[in-house]
Amino acid sequence: MTPPMTPAAVCAASRRAAPVRPAKSGPYRIVARKGDPDFGDDQSVRPVHVGHVVVGGERPVVIAGPCSVETRAQTIAVARAVKAAGADMLRGGAYKPRTSPYDFQGLGRAGLEILAEARAETGLPIVTEVMDPRLVEEACRYADLLQIGARSMQNFPLLREVGRCGKPILLKRHWAATLAEWLCAAEYVAAEGNLDVILCERGIRTFSQGEYNRNTLDLNVIPAVRRETFLPVIVDPSHGTGVAELVPSASGAAIGAGAHGLLIEVIEEDGDPAKALSDGRQAIRPSALAEIVRRARLTASHQTERTGR
Ligand code: PEP
Ligand code: MN
Hints:
The protein is of the alpha/beta class. The N and C termini lie far apart (52 Å). Helix 2 (72-84) runs parallel beside helix 3 and helix 9 packs parallel to helix 10. It contains ten helices and ten strands. The strands form two sheets. It has an eight-stranded parallel sheet. A two-stranded antiparallel sheet has the order 1-2. Bound molecules: phosphoenolpyruvate and manganese (II) ion. Phosphoenolpyruvate binds at residues 67, 93, 97, 149-151, 172, 202, 239.
């Protein structure tokens, strides 16, 4: 029988078995690409798995659905339509961050129930926003991917809470956040042990507002994000433009800029955008979505051919 190891020998053996990784530094040290032994030198991405969907792989991921869950019939109809158009996941807000407290605030728990039904019906994983740290547990019971909205990007207790919840996170950029502030927000989630963070650019606020758009889609940030971090990044051309007619070109540009996917707001094919309870002006129809999906996949496959990744 071999004699038991001394404590010093145990320490030495474990040092040999698990080489100490060089410590990274800086304000967002966990999510930083720089100095990372696995993702340090090139454009490699750490994919995030949401159910059977992989975000950050070769194929761009399309998340689509209504801004708000309004009714069961509306949500199921849109869910079926976005699936037929080729979307990979269904989005829909049950708790809505509205500028005015008198605007439609979402259906709450009833909205989550409807989303779960839409998932059962279509097989699409569901994405929904959580705003209140006290409701993270509830959101986790229903959603496959939890959205942190632009307004909540620096709600630090919320970021810590979702960092502990065990579900992947979609972290939207605030319209006035620098890249470093956005990555620090991701770091809050990562620091709690959750590295499954997908970043989402959704437009920033500039002088150009209201004339032909609602926000300015900052596509310059996409290569910058990819340089700074190994987290996947997607683009929301719906909030990023605020105008339905601009969504197709913004989507194409986003994929061309290197985004790993799109988040798009959709209404029923025969729906009236003016009657939507939120964001009707930027909602596109499923037929337009199908064309966006087709082009996105084509562009991405050409990019893969060209770059070999
Ligand atoms: C949304 O996705 O419906 C939403 C409210 O987005 P944002 O937080 O980017 O405004
Ligand atoms: Mn919206």
